[in-house]
Write a structure and sequence with these properties.
It is a single chain. The chain is of the alpha/beta class and 341 residues long. It has two domains: 1-98 and 247-341, Isopropylmalate Dehydrogenase; 102-240, Isopropylmalate Dehydrogenase. Helices cover 41% and strands 19% of the residues. It has helices spanning 17-31, 44-50, 56-63, 85-96, 143-158, 174-187, 200-209, 221-234, 273-286, 290-306, 318-329, and strands spanning 6-11, 35-40, 67-70, 100-107, 110-117, 127-129, 135-137, 163-168, 194-199, 216-219, 242-246, 252-256.
């Protein structure tokens, strides 16, 4: 169960990760002072220090935590290597069994929540290259894998506008036909939720041209990967997009969707919005602090108008946007000067 106390693991990651993670940590220290923050290594930083992208120490700390807040991973240094930073993230998702990936996409007139199955399907199936040079990747799903993420999506839809769109490719794929049968079976337990089935190609077109029609979308791993990025682009871009990856009873992973942006790392101009929005998701779903989550979300929106970073046409630095967020929070009436570096 989520808890407002306990130990939280912060994984700063690579590139701009440490810069945006620093701003998230300062917000957490204000809004969740009872939480102990334990910083650990993942990704390229972990490979350099230990030879592996997910050291046992990091994995064990995450397993024992109440939640994991993670920055982006990735470094061009390892692009052609056998051991790569991104392998650490996939291993962490598997270790924590964070099967339900929540990707909110919000803009004026648009409020879509994509629920992506995260630990099954094509990305986790058998793959390889045969002797004749043929490459293959296998997509497999069990009914149980589908049912648990679908139930999570139904529950989330019930708490919003009670509308759920299930996205598949049932006219072609056997896994999608199983997906659709499972959704129809589970739907009987949620008679108050309106369900529609949408083929993935049509869903992509509708998201691009009329995203206002959607509320909650649930789909399998690869379709969700693609559609959530599309939804992010429609509502402002990946640089602003947060995510939450949830398990049943164990710690979740909360992280920005964007990459490590090594080209701007260390320059102090990275936009920390996606990391801060991921922190808001952590407050709500990982620490059971919904009021603090709402306060942070409102503070971020106000700060974006007051102190936009260069990617948004402004001149604010990473730390200046972070300070503007803390000023909006006005914790205990203290001035922003108290929290400046």
């Amino acid at each position: 169960m989520p808890s407002s106390g306990g130990r939280l693991v912060l994984l700063a990651g690579d590139g701009i990760g440490p810069e945006v993670a620093h701003e998230a940590r300062r917000v957490l220290e204000l809004l969740a002072p009872a939480v102990e923050i334990d910083e650990q290594l993942i990704g390229g930083a972990a490979i350099r220090a230990t030879g592996t992208p997910l050291p046992d120490k990091t994995r064990d700390a995450c397993l024992a935590s109440v939640a994991v807040l993670k920055g982006p991973v990735g470094d061009p240094e390892f692009d052609a290597a056998d051991v790569r930073p991104e392998q650490g993230l996939l291993a962490l998702r598997g270790a924590l069994d964070t099967y339900a990936n929540l990707r909110p996409a919000v803009a004026e007139g648009v409020d879509v929540l994509i629920v992506r199955e995260l630990v099954g399907g094509l990305y986790f199936g058998a793959s390889g290259v045969r002797d004749d040079g043929t490459a293959f990747d296998t997509c497999e799903y069990t009914p149980a894998q589908i049912e648990r993420v679908v139930r999570r999506a139904f529950g989330l839809a019930r708490g919003r506008s009670s509308r759920l769109a299930s996205v598949d490719k049932a006219n072609v794929l056997e896994t999608s036909r199983l997906w659709r049968r499972t959704v129809n079976s589970v739907a009987g337990d949620y008679p108050d939720v309106q369900v529609e089935h949408v083929l993935v190609d049509n869903a992509a077109m509708q998201l691009a041209t009329n995203p206002e029609q959607f509320d909650v979308i649930v789909t399998e791993n690869m379709f969700g990967d693609i559609l959530s990025d599309l939804a992010a682009a429609v509502t402002g871009g990946l640089g602003l997009a947060p995510s939450a990856s949830l398990s049943d009873g164990g710690p979740g992973i909360f992280e920005p969707v964007h990459g490590s942006a090594p080209d701007i790392a260390g320059r102090g101009i990275a936009n920390p919005t996606a990391m801060l929005r991921s922190t808001a998701l952590l407050l709500e779903h990982g620490l059971d602090l919904p009021d603090e989550a709402r306060r942070l979300t409102a503070a971020i929106e106000s700060a974006l108008g007051a102190a936009p970073t260069p990617d948004l046409g402004g001149t604010a630095t990473t730390s200046e946007l972070g300070a503007a967020v803390r000023e909006q929070l006005s914790v205990d009436g203290a001035s922003v000067a108290t929290y400046r570096a």
